[in-house]
Amino acid sequence: MTDKRHLTKTQQRNRGLIREAALEIFSQYGFRGATLDQIAEASGLSKPNLLYYFPSKEAIHEELLGGLLDLWLAPLRELNDEGDALAELLDYVSRKLQMSREHPRESRLFANEILQGAPRMGGTLDTDLKALVDDKAAIIRHWVEQGRIAPVDPYHLIFSIWALTQHYADFDVQVRAVLDGADPYPGAEAYLHDLFLRLLSPRG
Amino acid sequence: MTDKRHLTKTQQRNRGLIREAALEIFSQYGFRGATLDQIAEASGLSKPNLLYYFPSKEAIHEELLGGLLDLWLAPLRELNDEGDALAELLDYVSRKLQMSREHPRESRLFANEILQGAPRMGGTLDTDLKALVDDKAAIIRHWVEQGRIAPVDPYHLIFSIWALTQHYADFDVQVRAVLDGADPYPGAEAYLHDLFLRLLSPRG
DNA sequence: GTCTATACCTCGATAGAC
DNA sequence: GTCTATCGAGGTATAGAC
Predict the structure, then answer these.
(1) Dihedral sign for Cα atoms in the order A24, B177, B168, B41
(2) Do A163 and B167 touch (CB under 8 A)?
């Protein structure tokens, strides 16, 4: 039996190659659009060898999805109720945008999954995701009540941060078509900082 | 030869049934994830009968994509350079959000296509889309220069409107998981109106 | 651990009766 | 115009030699 705590060098290396290749292919073609041939090609391993390390195509996909929600929610998890309210939220936006820039494939893999109704993410959306968002929304509501930020709906605020940051990864081809291929991130950083600063600055 | 201008009642009806069913299935599963069996089932026609009306699976998909970009850009096209700047933009946001609410399947079909690199949309992004956005961005830049709205990057403003409105259709399952299944649109309408009002109101 | 060969199935598309 | 039956390609997974 292979024990996760006692993997040989080869095993670690090949499982890593497969994960990397699978991320590349699944994020571009979706689960059903991707084929084991493509993943084999991209990883440099043979197709039967893929199925030596993972029992099925589905298992490879699950391996990727497993850690994805955690990675995805990490920036939100860092939101600190004891920090400066406005700075905390602006930092969150910045971290989330950086996540899109550094992990566009993970963003697209996630988007593919959600777009199709999250058939392979099970109940993690209703449990883990919802619990964290409820927790952070309560913090934001508190900040509003204390007048530390302008009044906003905490849930729609969080949705808007997700939407605005992930858009640059998920709709990359559209963005670059409009911008003639230019890197959108410097402009996005400035625009989003400005947007949320104006939205959230307490007035009067 | 079938001439589009002389379709029988049956032809019109069945082609309509196929389009409706294909939209339902393609938007949920993507092009490769969808099967003709599913579309046949959903349309109430037999699989060979689908291929009597359309030469291939790809042709059905193209039929849907064909009009999609136009439908998609219609709200932006209405942006009128002679109207009141702030009201024009807020109305655009509202129209675009309504499009998400009324056409979530079209939104997801489009998102599926863009997410995977728009392999079947040809050059329409680089030509039609870019031309329209450049045109409207020039109008917005003009409004900024005249001081009729606060200074913003016109391109990122348009991206942000797309991202924020489409998010509610494309990431519906995630939004509803967080909101316990509640309808997000009333809250979204208020939040987005508020957001863009604060962002764009000229100050000083 | 890794390969070649292949079993087996799903799916798009066609043949041909009605 | 619509059906049943079926072909053939492509895809997941397995067998078995090395």
Answers:
(1) positive
(2) yes
